[in-house]
């Protein structure tokens, strides 16, 4: 199974939606502006070795998506960042963007 653009965009939209929900209950005259600015600061970029797609939120690594299967993970698996440029492979997968069932917040990914 290959990671496709729609699955990536759906994942990015989940992050943006969680942020919008967070701000929708805030009492701020700038909340629409804050939501719009954040929307444009969520993006995906392919890492040079093409093993991962890095999800960037406001300039920092939010998560990593496996682009293909390897010995430990499947394509679409979501990994937490270890550093800005590397995933933390020791913590395991936090869901899969191709099969669903992941929990993502604008602040990061979590189990269930």
The stretches of 5 or more residues where confidence is low (pLDDT under 50) are none
For the sheet with most strands, the description reads:
4 strands, antiparallel
| Apparent shape | elongated
Distance between the termini: 23 Å
Compact description:
The protein is an alpha+beta fold and about 110 residues long.
Key words describing this protein structure:
4-stranded antiparallel β-sheet; 6 strands; 112 residues; single chain; alpha+beta
Describe the protein in words.
Helix 1 (5-24) packs antiparallel against helix 2. The chain has one domain (5-110). Helix content is 26%, strand content 23%. It has 2 helices and 6 strands. The mean pLDDT is 90. A hairpin with a 2-residue loop joins strand 2 and strand 3 (60-66). The longest helix is centred in the first third of the chain and has 20 residues, at 5-24. The chain has a 4-stranded antiparallel β-sheet, with helices on one face. A two-stranded antiparallel ribbon has the order 5-6. The chain has helices at residues 5-24, 31-39, and strands at residues 42-46, 52-57, 60-66, 78-79, 103-105, 108-110. It is an alpha+beta fold.
